[in-house]
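U., I forgot to send this yesterday:
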Amino acid sequence: QNVVNNFVSGVILLFERPIQVGDTIQLGELLGDVRRIGIRSSTVRTWEGAEVIVPNASLVSDQVINWTLSDRQRRIDIAVGVAYGTDPELVIELLTEAARAHPDVVSIPPPAVHFLGFGDSSLDFQIRAWTGSFSRWLAIRSDLTVAANTALRDAGIEIPFPQRDLHLRSVDEGVGRALRDEPSS
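Result:
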């Protein structure tokens, strides 16, 4: 029964072509590029380099995300936090320009920067850009993160780190002297 099910599923894949060789798919935890579509099974090469044989019935009956069915574009989102007191409009301008300047970021849709809100230690923004180089999205994300850091640093804008203020209600007298660098009597 499984053999027949996989065979029928293979015929469906070959004729309907919801998945094609070269597509990047996600099936559960499996993420990779389709290398071969056979009659009973297909081969997916993961980004770690493993070749995974997938029964065609899984590709037809399970939920499959085809990242490249209609195009090779991929959205890149980058979270950025800046110090309180920074002009949000300046941050949006700097980060938008940094994203626009990357050669692999497409102009339609254009890159956008959104002010998301007030974090514990920072004003929180998100860079959203699209690339047509699906296979290079991680390298492009890295480039954009470096460009954002450079743009903010060059403008003198601080990227904060989480901080905690500690308020002591009562302190032992000896500890208090030690904290004030006073000699003990």
